Each structure stands twice: as structure tokens, then as C-alpha cells.
Amino acid sequence: MKIRSLIALLAAASLGSVSAQNTAFTDPVGFFEVTLNPGFNFVSSGTANAVDYEGILDNTYTDTGAFSAGEFDQGATYPTHYLEIAEGVNEGARIDIASNTADTITPVDSPAGSAATFAGFLDGSTAAVIRKHRTISDIFGGAAGGTAPADLQIDAGTSAAGADRILIWNGTGFNPPIFYNNFFIGSGWSGATDAGNLPIPPGAGLVVEDNNGDSDVIVQDGHVKVTNTIIDLPVGFSLINSPVALDRTYSQLFGGSAGGTAPPDLVLQAGTSAAAADNILTWNGSGFDAPAFYNNFFIGAGWSPGDNSISFTDSFFVEVKTTPTSASVDFYDEDAGVAIP
């Protein structure tokens, strides 16, 4: 993939708050371009949408008079917005929104009990923000529908076999491919229910298959989060990208820069071999490179095969072998996610 970027170099945009406090919140804004290679491309879900609210909620999700009733209501199929803690020890924790009144947010309580857990983070003095989810049509265009929308960034087709395809990882495999159907009846995003409005959470990686080999260019522009992002890393494989708008090394993302057999900041399981450790798997255009892992063998302890860099425009797999232990609690939230500043 060829990459051109101008992230965090454009003038910072001042985001107007709709909170009662009229607090100002500022994200850098910018864009990046990715030129797809024929075949599979592991790409970042990219930038975030603007902050629609910043303020102080109490543990009943209330900020009196702060909202327009219904402005964050979930759509016909998916939530449209999420609430995120913007400071403190739980910075980066987030929850989807089901609905709102003029005063109060009602979160999506899935899994059951998550709304009560999240309410414990809202102590009446901690800043929270609300953003609209990035969606398939946000990232790739085509929200307006029709057989040939002008903003569509990948090739359409009358079937998945003839179109460029977007692959979403579900934890154990890829969902059926999403593609833009340009058949004159029912043209639009296809492959999932209400596919164009499918939310892509912060830090979620994507795979795009350039099925026609014509080197489409994907341009993503928007806001760059300056607060932590918590990415869930359950046991198994997770397809993620760095939410930081900079190329980062393994140690910058997952700890271990100090070296040694047991660096205290390491948030992945070390081992004397890839078979024993958690692994990072990066795509090279035709296959995966040898797994990267933290080698805790007493001679030559450190990242193997080296503390390499990952582009913020790329996605990659993280394989977690076992549930995090109590020694990692400072780096994991209640959902076994790692906070990446």
C-alpha cells in the first residue's frame, strides 16, 4: 500500500460543544490516503468523528439541559453515537448510546450490567465526550446510494465476486464480505444488514480486498483523538489498528521498551518462543510476517525479531493466548482492553 498523510499538521479545529457548560474541546484534524494493492489490504479504520458533546455527567448519565432530545438515538439497526470517558483513570472507556432526553443519556446495556459498570466511572466531576460512530459509508463513501455515488472510494459490482470487498473480523473469522452493489434495483451497500451504517469502533482494523487490481485510493479525513482509546483484547485473535496518528513501535504500543525478562509495563504475555507468547501478526501484501512477540529468555530478552514500527494506517492481528493476569491489571480495563495513549 502506498500511503500519503497529513494528520495533525492541518490547523486544529475548535469543536463547538453543545454542553451546558459550553466547554471547548479541540482535536487535531487531517487526512491520510492509502493506495490499495491488488488482493488483500490491512487498513486502519482511521480518524474519528467530531465531538458532539463534552461535559460532566453524573452517575445517572444526567447533565441537565445539555442535549437536544433524541439527537443521539440509535438508528433502525445500530447505535449511532458512543459516550467516552475523556480523563482520569478510566479515560478511553466507552459505551454505545440507545437514546437521550434533553437531560439524560440512556446507554446500550450490552452485555447486561455494562451500563451500571460504566455509571461508576461518572462521578460528577469527570469529563466525558460523545462522538458519532464512524461507519462503512463514512469511511468508504456511498451513503447517498445510487448505482455510482460520486464519493464511493472502492469499486462497486453486481455481486461480491465482482466488487471490491470489505472484511470485518468477528473474533473467530471474517463476516460475509461487504461490497457496494451497483445493480440498478436495490443499489447500495450490501453483505450485512444496513451495511452502510455499520459502526466501526475506534481501533478496529479492516481488511479491504482490491478485487479488480486497479489501485483504488482511499482517503480518510476527520478528527484525531487526543485521549486514550481502549481496545478490547480477549483471548484469541483481534484485528486492530493503532488509534495514535503516528507510526509506533511494538514497545510504544504494548510496553517493554525497558527490556529485561519481565518489564513492568508489558501488557502482552511474554514467552521464550512465539508458540508460548502472545503474538503480533502483520500483513506484508501476500502473507503474514513471522510473529512478533516479547522474548523473555534471559539472554537477549526483548521484542523479537525486533522492536519494529507499525504504521498508523495499517491494521494487524494480536493473538492473546491466556486471560490477562493480575500483574497486568494496571494496563487493562474491566473488559480486558489495553489503554493505548
Q: How much is the average pLDDT?
A: 85
Quote the beta fraction: 25-35%
Number of helices in the DSSP assignment: 3
* Rg calculated over all Cα atoms: 21 Å
Q: Which strand order does the major sheet show?
A: 6-10-7-8-9
The gross shape turns out to be globular
- Percent helix among the residues? under 10%
End-to-end gap:
26 Å
Q: Residue ranges: pLDDT <50 for 5 or more in a row?
A: 3-23, 325-337
Count all strands and give the number.
26
Summarize the biggest pleated sheet.
5 strands, antiparallel
Give a description of the structure.
This protein is mostly beta strands and 341 residues long. The protein has 3 helices and 26 strands. It has helices at residues 114-119, 136-140, 250-254; strands spanning 2-6, 13-15, 25-27, 29-35, 39-43, 51-56, 81-85, 94-100, 105-107, 127-132, 134-135, 165-167, 179-181, 188-190, 199-200, 206-210, 217-223, 229-232, 236-241, 248-249, 279-281, 293-295, 302-304, 309-310, 315-320, 337-340. The strands form 10 sheets. It has a 5-stranded antiparallel beta sheet. It has a 3-stranded antiparallel beta sheet with strand order 1-4-17, with no helix packed on it. A hairpin with an 8-residue loop joins strand 7 (81-85) and strand 8. The protein starts with a strand and ends with a strand.
Descriptive keywords:
5% helix; single chain; 5-stranded antiparallel beta sheet; 3 helices; 3-stranded antiparallel beta sheet; 341 residues; mainly beta; globular
